[in-house]
Amino acid sequence: MQNTVYQVIKQAIKQRRAIFPPSYIKKEIPKTLLVELLECANTAPTHKLTQPWRFIIFRENGREKLADQLAEQYKTHTSPEQFLQKKYENTREKVLQSGAVIAIVVSYSGSLPQWEELAATACAVQNLWLAASAAGIGGYWSSPGTVKYMGDFLSLAANEECLGFFYMGFHDESAREATRKPVLEKIQWEE
């Protein structure tokens, strides 16, 4: 018989899905719960314990500031021929529909290859995502093209980079498993 904890973790992993802002319901995510979720993120594996992740949480009025900034960055850095008013509005709306939006920041230590610190930060986001999903909070990680222009707004240091935003909110969607190619097609055995 397999361990019950294993079964719970396996189910949580298999049912973690991207849930988008139009599915979020109007329900505040308490600060205490956000801290608990980020404590889960903070336990991610990290080479030499550099712990390169940092998070900036936008909630309440902070969401409006972020929505305005992302929309303005889109407008500023999109040619008039490419600019779509609907995309401008959607950029703002998905932030405002969210219970919280978290900027995902990596701080490069300089003592490790950057890819290792990117991977550690991605592991932290996966921990966050799994914990949020288990708490009934949907989310998804988005990296808009304008993220590279957000450094001043996010007060990033010279060794930091924003990897995107984690949008999150309570939702009523049913749990579902991922559609993936069979894992046996991705395994090569050397015995």
UniProtKB/TrEMBL annotation:
Bilayer-spanning residue ranges: none
One Pfam family of this chain: Nitroreductase
Domain Nitroreductase as annotated: residue spans: 13-169
E.C. designation(s): 1.-.-.-
Keyword check for Flavoprotein: yes
The entry's keywords: Flavoprotein, FMN, NAD, NADP, Oxidoreductase
SUPFAM superfamilies to which the protein is assigned, alphabetical: FMN-dependent nitroreductase-like
Cofactor(s) required for function per UniProt: FMN
Major enzyme class: oxidoreductase
Oxidoreductase found in the keyword field: yes
Highest taxon listed in the record's lineage: Bacteria
InterPro entries in alphabetical order: NAD(P)H_nitroreductase, Nitroreductase, Nitroreductase-like, YdjA-like
Similarity-based family: Belongs to the nitroreductase family.
This protein's name: Putative NAD(P)H nitroreductase
Source organism of this protein record: Parapedobacter defluvii
Organism classification: Bacteria, Pseudomonadati, Bacteroidota, Sphingobacteriia, Sphingobacteriales
